[in-house]
Amino acid sequence: MIVKNCVKTSVANKDKSFERELLMLVVNKITDFIPNKIINVDVDVSEFISLADHSFNVPDKIDMLLGAEIFYELLRPGQIYAQNSQLLLQNTVFGYVVSGSVDQVAEDRVHCGLILDDNLNKTLKQFWEIESVDVKSTGDTEASLCEDHFVRTHKKNEEGRYVVSMALSRDPSCLGNSKDMAVRQLS
């Protein structure tokens, strides 16, 4: 369903006792004809009550689909259950509307659709090629140097603890006898 336009319009019943200004979306088609087959009605109910749609039993397009923001304003007290059927007549500001299910078997329709769009497939492929990030390893980067250093200086002992060798840039003898001084500073 593609929205073609948006329209501000006034919706009213016949005697203008109900009138609202609504913002509506314009589409080509909401659904197939409803009902999908003619419903055989034994009694002309319009003799007894005022119907919102006198040809409710004949397949036709939907004129307007109203949403929840106005739906409950439309309802009025009064429901009639049609005898020997599952139809319900509900009173509204427009007159009685008919809802429910009918015992008629609808036509068996099988819809199978296949959309093959090579352009779409190519476009998607190009999109993912553009979005993919090439990771180039230069071999002598700072990251690889860090990893090499880690592998050389870290080991796991038998207890599962890591043993890290001291990172010295010179021979350890250049430290002199600093152990006693370090212990005193920590105490």
Automatic annotation (TrEMBL):
Highest taxon of the lineage: Eukaryota
Protein name as it appears in the record: Uncharacterized protein
Organism, scientific name: Araneus ventricosus
Highest classification ranks of the organism: Eukaryota, Metazoa, Ecdysozoa, Arthropoda, Chelicerata
